[in-house]
Amino acid sequence: MAAAKELKITLIRSLCKRLKTHQACVRGLGLKKIHQTVVVQDTPENRGMINKVSYMLKIEGMSS
After folding, report:
1. What sign results for the dihedral spanned by CA atoms 14, 20, 6, 39?
2. CATH code, 40
3. What is the mean pLDDT of the chain?
4. Which of 13, 25, 44, 64 is the most buried (most CB within 10 A)?
Protein backbone atom coordinates (compact mmCIF):
# COMPACT_ATOMS: atom_id res chain seq x y z
CA MET A 1 0.00 0.00 0.00
CA ALA A 2 1.48 3.35 -1.05
CA ALA A 3 1.70 6.14 1.49
CA ALA A 4 -0.44 9.18 0.77
CA LYS A 5 1.43 12.31 -0.19
CA GLU A 6 1.17 15.34 2.05
CA LEU A 7 1.47 19.07 1.47
CA LYS A 8 2.74 21.58 4.01
CA ILE A 9 0.91 24.89 3.60
CA THR A 10 1.45 28.20 5.38
CA LEU A 11 -0.87 31.22 5.36
CA ILE A 12 1.22 34.27 4.41
CA ARG A 13 -1.47 36.88 3.77
CA SER A 14 -4.39 38.14 5.84
CA LEU A 15 -7.97 36.98 5.33
CA CYS A 16 -9.30 40.51 5.87
CA LYS A 17 -11.17 42.03 2.93
CA ARG A 18 -11.05 38.78 0.89
CA LEU A 19 -13.95 37.12 -0.87
CA LYS A 20 -16.07 34.96 1.44
CA THR A 21 -15.41 31.93 -0.77
CA HIS A 22 -11.65 32.44 -0.46
CA GLN A 23 -11.93 32.80 3.32
CA ALA A 24 -13.95 29.57 3.41
CA CYS A 25 -11.27 27.72 1.39
CA VAL A 26 -8.53 28.82 3.78
CA ARG A 27 -10.63 27.78 6.79
CA GLY A 28 -11.39 24.47 5.08
CA LEU A 29 -7.67 23.81 4.83
CA GLY A 30 -7.41 24.30 8.61
CA LEU A 31 -5.66 27.68 8.63
CA LYS A 32 -6.76 30.43 11.01
CA LYS A 33 -3.83 32.80 11.57
CA ILE A 34 -1.07 34.33 9.47
CA HIS A 35 2.14 32.24 9.52
CA GLN A 36 0.24 29.18 10.76
CA THR A 37 1.38 25.97 9.05
CA VAL A 38 -0.64 22.79 8.56
CA VAL A 39 -0.03 19.48 6.81
CA VAL A 40 -2.86 18.26 4.57
CA GLN A 41 -3.30 15.20 2.38
CA ASP A 42 -2.66 15.71 -1.34
CA THR A 43 -6.20 15.06 -2.60
CA PRO A 44 -8.08 16.63 -5.54
CA GLU A 45 -10.37 18.43 -3.06
CA ASN A 46 -7.48 20.02 -1.17
CA ARG A 47 -5.66 20.82 -4.43
CA GLY A 48 -8.73 22.72 -5.65
CA MET A 49 -8.89 24.84 -2.49
CA ILE A 50 -5.12 25.47 -2.63
CA ASN A 51 -5.28 26.53 -6.29
CA LYS A 52 -8.13 28.95 -5.56
CA VAL A 53 -6.24 30.82 -2.82
CA SER A 54 -2.64 30.15 -3.90
CA TYR A 55 -1.85 33.89 -3.76
CA MET A 56 -2.28 33.74 0.04
CA LEU A 57 -0.34 30.52 0.67
CA LYS A 58 3.17 29.12 0.68
CA ILE A 59 3.10 25.48 -0.43
CA GLU A 60 5.79 22.85 0.17
CA GLY A 61 5.64 19.24 -0.96
CA MET A 62 6.39 16.53 1.55
CA SER A 63 7.10 12.87 0.96
CA SER A 64 5.91 10.37 3.51
Report:
1. positive
2. 3.30.1390.20
3. 94
4. 25
